[in-house]
């Protein structure tokens, strides 16, 4: 896309981890300030993240974001202040059970998400620590497949990097378009409803806000961001992103340690391309 002749961007969508923050680099003052400028220019700012809603709202509070946000890898869109769920695309019960059956025999821990609670067949040190790190309730339920009497927002399989890479390939081959399968972290394989995903959630949000797709500016860095980067009106991958995300994006921003997202937004604001 030629941003010299582009429409102005009315929605800015940001992935969180690996895009605007990392363990070593928390969200910077510069990033907060430029997001304030984006809103002052008249554009909406949202988050599109794999985090649970409860985890994501910590960042919305830090960034003063009030636009509905996409969480759970794009399976849900919610109001960050009230918590009201506006759009939800959970796995059906048959999808959940079929997916869990497909994970049998793989050396992974499986987590099911419903609301802001996590369900596991057996509690481990890792799953217990995951709950504490993310501020979510982890429940041991015995047989997760048998417990899945109700829909799950998503399933996440955790394992060694090489196992997860192989698992993603196998599940995509097995399910094709019947389920949405992606890697988020190198050790997470996520399974969602085929109509879920960050791109689908943002597309719904655009309709809700009356914003055309071509007026969206999206930022990401991971495998799970690729559909969103391909969907957006103008897409930006942050330096250090996975190769496939770099290929999917229109431009590449400097990495987090150089506040790449802030640099891009400042440039677009100075050129009158936002708002």
Please characterize this protein's 3D structure.
This protein has 275 residues and is of the alpha/beta class. The chain has helices spanning 29-40, 53-63, 93-103, 125-134, 144-147, 161-175, 198-209, 226-231, 243-248, 260-270, and strands spanning 11-14, 44-47, 69-71, 76-78, 85-88, 109-114, 117-120, 137-140, 154-158, 180-183, 188-192, 216-220, 234-238, 251-253. It has 2 domains: 11-86 and 197-270, HAD superfamily/HAD-like (Rossmann fold, 3-Layer(aba) Sandwich), CATH 3.40.50.1000; 93-192, Hypothetical Protein, Haloacid Dehalogenase-like Hydrolase, Chain: A, domain 2, CATH 3.30.1240.10. Residues 1-5 have low confidence and may be disordered. The protein has a 6-stranded mixed beta sheet, sandwiched between helices. It has a 5-stranded parallel beta sheet with strand order 2-1-12-13-14. The protein is built from 10 helices and 14 strands. It is globular. Helix 1 (29-40) packs parallel to helix 10. The two termini are 18 Å apart. 36% of the residues lie in helices and 21% in strands.
Q: What is the global morphology?
A: globular
- Low-pLDDT runs: 1-5
Query: What order do the SSEs take from the amino end to the carboxyl end, as H and E?
Result: EHEHEEEHEEHEHEHEEHEHEHEH
> What percent of residues adopt helix (DSSP H or I)?
25-40%
Task: Supply the helix-strand structural class.
Answer: alpha/beta
CATH topology value of the largest domain: Rossmann fold
Question: Gap between N and C termini, in Å?
Answer: 18 Å
- Lateral strand order in the biggest sheet: 8-7-6-9-11-10
Q: How many domains, as an integer?
A: 2
Give me the count of strands.
Answer: 14
Please name the fourth-level CATH homologous superfamily of the largest domain: HAD superfamily/HAD-like
Mean pLDDT: 94
